Amino acid sequence: MITDCNACPLRKYDFFQDMTQDEVDKTQRFKSGELSVDPGTPILMEGSNAPQIYTALRGMGLRYKILPNGRRQVVNFIFPGDFIGLQAGLIGEMGHSVDATTHMKLCVFDRADFFEFFRGSVPRAFDVTWLAAREEHFLGDALATIGQRSALASIAWALVQLFRRGSTVDMVRNDTMPLPYRQQDMADALGLSLVHTNKTLARLRERQLANWSDGLLTIRDLKKLADVAEMELEPLRRRPLI
Amino acid sequence: MITDCNACPLRKYDFFQDMTQDEVDKTQRFKSGELSVDPGTPILMEGSNAPQIYTALRGMGLRYKILPNGRRQVVNFIFPGDFIGLQAGLIGEMGHSVDATTHMKLCVFDRADFFEFFRGSVPRAFDVTWLAAREEHFLGDALATIGQRSALASIAWALVQLFRRGSTVDMVRNDTMPLPYRQQDMADALGLSLVHTNKTLARLRERQLANWSDGLLTIRDLKKLADVAEMELEPLRRRPLI
DNA sequence: CGAATCGTTGACAGGGTTCAATTTACGTGG
DNA sequence: CCACGTAAATTGAACCCTGTCAACGATTCG
């Protein structure tokens, strides 16, 4: 019933760093169960001190914050392999909420065991920190995008990011991958209005740079799109899996 | 000549978590020297794999990225006690550059010793991770600000943040603290133009909500300013010092 | 079939950018 | 001691990218 870490379907992707048997075992011991959730299900709440943290095993989700003025900022999109609740595990309080966008399967960990896990293996502790630093890195990029890029470049940037992340977990077939989000999610991620997001996506479609419709994203020429995004296509970096 | 960690001038502030003697000793052993830099000096470069990482002992600086289109995004302002180069230490590559804004004194650590430091003490390793998670938390807030707040609210938000951080290291006297940045820095931090930043600061001044001029920031009523910023004033959280 | 959700499109207004010029402060060299 | 150059702050004006408002089409579902 419950996926054995030894048979974890994610580990086969090059994108994730190899693990020693010891690391797999320790992760297995850390894992307390599995959870399946339907689209729209809240997984973690901002400000909460959740007793459980997760790794996305299948499906996609959304990290977001709600501001006092009622507006929503999407902080990131969640893909398979993403660790969910790092802030809760460390600081004891989430800085953002997490919802499932599609049906998801999650590995469940008890927050109470987190410190033990961290202490039990220096390489694993290092991996946790590595992930935190990488997220910080990404958020810096996102900040630069919202702050300094035009709407067209912003959306191009976001689509490139999503496409590349999709490629790391084998979601891309024939230049196209599933992208089950709403335009409103993208708008809220980039600080744009829904209407303008829609029109900008249409422009990219006309220019044949990217076509995102019916939940499918297809990009024929990633480099061209990256040019529009005014970004460098840096080589993908393998990351640890927890 | 070189400040002994036991006599570190930062540790006296409540803002920083207490350290055991063992932690102090291990930090002392990690520390390889001290560095004084003049205003404007580059400390770390984006993309570089610097051999050294730092902690700001005195003075203030700027984290920023330059985009291919030439625009600059300020990622954060550096205050005394801030750890500089976490990404370099962990991932081996900085996601942003760091410059000194004022004259600064820095504790120097060798990146080569970082893993040893991390392995040598679980609590210290945890602290490193904690800092990374906290920075991630902050960047999420910053993202929400740039993405969802008006220019007026954005600048109010930034001033509140800066003021509160200043208060943690005893920079505030009589509702005022030194804030030695240029308006351009603030503009680049919030994704606003210099002109609009200037006019918005003037509005806050007229309304007597915040006065930032001549390198001094004075805020008489932080709550009022926080209201304009559409933000909650959450209690300050103590953080580890490295 | 009606309600709800999401995507699309047009019209219009406005918050913020850009351009440009002026002011102020300050250090430097003659 | 003053002229000059430079950096930063300030102000005005024109413009435009993007937001807001509003309506409509397409799809799904109870």
Describe the 3D structure:
By secondary structure, chain A is α+β, with helices and mostly antiparallel strands. The first copy, chain A, folds into 2 domains: 5-122, Sandwich (Jelly Rolls), CATH 2.60.120; 143-228, Winged helix-like DNA-binding domain superfamily/Winged helix DNA-binding domain (Arc Repressor Mutant, subunit A, Orthogonal Bundle). Helices cover 39% and strands 21% of the residues of chain A. Chain A contains 8 helices and 11 strands. In chain A, the strands form 3 sheets. A 4-stranded antiparallel sheet of chain A has the order 1-8-3-6. A 4-stranded antiparallel sheet of chain A has the order 2-7-4-5. Chain A has a 3-stranded antiparallel sheet with strand order 9-11-10. In chain A, strand 10 and strand 11 (216-218) form a beta hairpin. In chain A, helix 6 packs across helix 7 (194-206). The longest helix of chain A has 27 residues, at 122-148. Chain A is globular. The first copy, chain A, starts with 20 loop residues before the first helix and ends in a 14-residue tail after the last helix. The model of chain A has no long low-confidence stretch (mean pLDDT 97). Chains A and B meet through strand 5, helix 2, helix 3, helix 4 and helix 6 of A and strand 5, helix 2, helix 3, helix 4 and helix 6 of B. Chain B binds a DNA duplex (30 and 30 nucleotides) through helix 7.
